Amino acid sequence: MIKLRTVIIEDEAPARDLVKAYIKSNKNIDLIGECSDGFSGVKKINETKPDLVFLDIQMPKLTGFEMIELLDEVPEIIFTTAYDQYAIKAFDLSAVDYLMKPFSRERFNEAIEKVISRLKSRSESQIKKRIPNKNIEDFTNNKKQDVDQIERLFVKTGTKIDVVPVDTIIKIEAQDDYVEIHTADKKYLKNDTMNYLERVLSKQVFSRVHRSHIINISHIQKIEKYGKESHIVILKDGSKVNVSKSRIKKLKLQLGI
């Protein structure tokens, strides 16, 4: 019999109590922890590496979606929420199920059966090898739906998590499998791709001027032409960024010139 090591992450106590009540009556679940906020949830998952997480989406400080970005390894996820508008994004992240509060015991057990079925369909080695976070990002990058624009980025370094408001970003530079985020005060190295950031950052504020550079257009001091068709952007901090020939027209349209 499969015994799912399970964690609940939910900021509302009544909602946690409901899930715990359903868990007690399900012989396939072993509850190993519960958390009332996203930051402690990230720590709990990274430390205990559960098979399954019941995860709320709308929580203070850190949403369920932002939490997933910070995990070392992503377990099976069942989202629990009172809002239906996040369903597409949840399944883009390969969630097992999406339970709308308040959900019944029958609906809960149905979601558990889906988890068990998914695990049984894998070999033993696949069960032990959970999905790396970057694979989830690649999966969502291939989707054609619009992505909600983000207002902050989370950068995990060891056990430390930095919150970077996107309006403080001056530019982003590709660095192999990472990106280097530049603000006025600090540089951050994050395991993300330029394609992903181009999609989720505001098109009114940011422009990808080169395959290896995204800039905040409010920080542009001037654009200079050099050679026959090449351009360079000089930012207010004095740094210079090349603009590829294929992207100069889009940049000028953004700037209204």
Spans where pLDDT lies below 50 across 5 or more residues:
123-129, 134-147
The figure for the number of domains is 2
CATH fold name of the largest domain: Rossmann fold
| CATH class designation of the largest domain | Alpha Beta
The portion of residues assigned to helices is 25-40%
* Elements, N to C (H/E): EHEHEHEEHEHHEHEEEEEHEEEEEH
Largest sheet, spatial ordering of strands: 2-1-3-5-6
Mean pLDDT: 86
Task: Give descriptors for this structure.
257 residues, alpha/beta, Rossmann fold, OB fold (Dihydrolipoamide Acetyltransferase, E2P), five-stranded antiparallel sheet, 9 helices, 17 strands, elongated
Task: Write a structural description.
It is a single chain. The chain has 9 helices and 17 strands. By secondary structure, the chain is α/β, with parallel strands linked by helices. The protein folds into 2 domains: 4-141, Rossmann fold, CATH 3.40.50.2300; 152-255, LytTr DNA-binding domain (OB fold (Dihydrolipoamide Acetyltransferase, E2P)), CATH 2.40.50.1020. The protein has a 5-stranded parallel sheet, sandwiched between helices. A hairpin with a 2-residue loop joins strand 8 (152-157) and strand 9 (160-165).
Short description:
With 257 residues, the chain is α/β, with parallel strands linked by helices. Helix content is 31%, strand content 34%. Helix 4 links the parallel strand 5 and strand 6 (97-100).
